[in-house]
Design a protein that fits this description.
Shape: rod-shaped
Strand content: under 5%
Number of strands: 0
Length: 63
């Protein structure tokens, strides 16, 4: 099973028919669907570059 946490944009609710036409949909079926498109997540992951820059700035301030 794929690790898809966000529900699909077509997912309505558990046990209902989704907008793609599948009947009795649950998250397990939704996660493995070939037409899966995740909903937008308002939180963006912090990039590695920005984390490293923060660490540099934090350590430079101690001097």
């Amino acid at each position: 099973m794929r690790d898809r946490i966000e529900p699909c944009i077509y997912y309505v609710c558990m046990g209902a028919e989704c907008r793609k036409g599948f009947v009795k949909v649950d998250m397990k079926k939704c996660k493995n669907c070939p037409k899966y498109q995740p909903r937008k997540n308002p939180k963006k992951k912090e990039s590695v570059r920005s984390r490293r820059q923060k660490d540099k700035d934090r350590h430079d301030s101690w001097n």
